[in-house]
Amino acid sequence: MILPCDIRYTDSMQSLVNKRILLGITGGVAAYKSAELTRRLRDQGATVRVVMTPAATEFITPLTLQALSGNPVHTELLDHNAEAAMGHIELARWADRVVVAPASANFIARLGNGLADDLLSTLCLATNAPLLIAPAMNRQMWLNPATQENISRLQARKTTLLGPAAGDQACGETGPGRLLEPDEIVQAIAASFKTDQLAGTRVMVTAGPTREFIDPVRYLSNRSSGRMGYAVARAAMESGADVMLVSGPVALEPPDRIQVVEVVSARQMREAVLADVSLFDIFISAAAVADYRCVETAGQKIKKEDAGMALQLKKTPDILFEVSSLSSPPFTVGFAAETESLAANAKQKLMNKKLDMIAANQVGDGVGFDSEFNALDVYWPGGSQFLETAPKEKLARQLMELIVKRYREKEEV
């Protein structure tokens, strides 16, 4: 059974889909804006977890932020229930971005001096996620040389400063020190995920499983969810590339600002890829293409027989090898899902299929499939790098950084 391809291009303007934002709130009148900020972040597709300092809870209640974020609010460093599982470290690892809004003068001073005497400051030191702070304070406090020195120290450590704005303040004075408006903060957070590393470059990504029909209601397939491939496509788009995603059947929303070609079978995926791949600079094969299909597909549902049923199968096309064997192939990246001998099998596939890079992951026993997390062993001729277990969205961005680096190096040769 051959079903027609479907091409879609989506732009729902949700700029933070699948992004994990840890929002820190410190004490100050501007804390009331954090409620609206939380709502705006979720409107843009982000998952939000909130951490409040004790002073912040004097201005806005944790219950309000819990209702708006949809997640428990964290306030205590020495929470015995959470710390039994090293909760502060888990939160630090979870985040794609740590955003402190509002950031008080006191918090900025403590962070600038490397103090970790509450949950939020501890998280800021424990995370490897980019840190963004949105100051809010009286204008004299903002202009004080001590505050400016602390800000300079944080910026030297690659902390991103959001604002402050100037205008009327709660104290009755006018000047710099106002918290940016929630929409401005959301835009800045979204912009922090975007780079121009692949500006002017075209990237094709395949994702998801294929289905090889036995009859109109049965098919051969695999457990691929497509999450990793979709995350890679988003990471390529955020790197500035023009992206086409060729997707097998998945239960995922089409990514924003990406052309999606929906297919079902390996044959359809091959046709969609080969029709356009010569126009692309990078080809990333994250799809789990079925290795075999039925020699004959029944036109009607096959009735169950007591004697059982035998299927005659034949190999499906090797799309990845066909692309890498083109006379002028794009930079070609493959994926390998292995249950054993991961390194040996991945390196063999890298060589046999003439790839520029391969990303291998262990599957089975709850790893790889049906999970939002993964880990990758990445190999290329003459090198390798391990990407430790992380949410697939974060892992995809790390992988894309490696791809960009190797792609640029190959271009320079």
List the helices and strands and how they pair.
Blueprint (H helix, E strand, L loop, with lengths): L5 E5 L9 E6 L7 H11 L3 E6 L9 H8 L10 H4 L3 H8 L2 E7 L1 H8 L6 H8 L4 E5 L3 H5 L1 H12 L3 E2 L3 E4 L5 E5 L3 H11 L9 E6 L4 E4 L2 E3 L6 H12 L3 E6 L10 E5 L3 H11 L5 E4 L6 E3 L18 E3 L3 H6 L6 E8 L3 H11 L4 E6 L10 E8 L2 E9 H21 L1
Parallel strand pairs: 2-3, 2-4, 4-5, 5-6, 9-12, 9-14, 12-13, 14-17, 17-18
Antiparallel strand pairs: 1-13, 7-8, 10-11, 15-16, 18-19, 19-20
Helix pairs in contact: 1-2, 1-9, 4-6, 5-8, 10-14
Question: What are the salient characteristics of this protein?
Answer:
five-stranded parallel beta sheet, Rossmann fold, 20 strands, 413 residues, disordered N terminus, nine-stranded mixed beta sheet
Task: Please describe what this structure looks like.
This protein has 413 residues and is α/β, with parallel strands linked by helices. It folds into 2 domains: 20-192, Rossmann fold, CATH 3.40.50.1950; 196-412, Rossmann fold (3-Layer(aba) Sandwich). Helices cover 33% and strands 25% of the residues. The chain has a 9-stranded mixed β-sheet with strand order 1-13-12-9-14-17-18-19-20, with helices on both faces. Strands 3-2-4-5-6 form a 5-stranded parallel β-sheet, with helices on both faces. A two-stranded antiparallel sheet has the order 7-8. A hairpin with a 2-residue loop joins β10 (212-215) and β11.
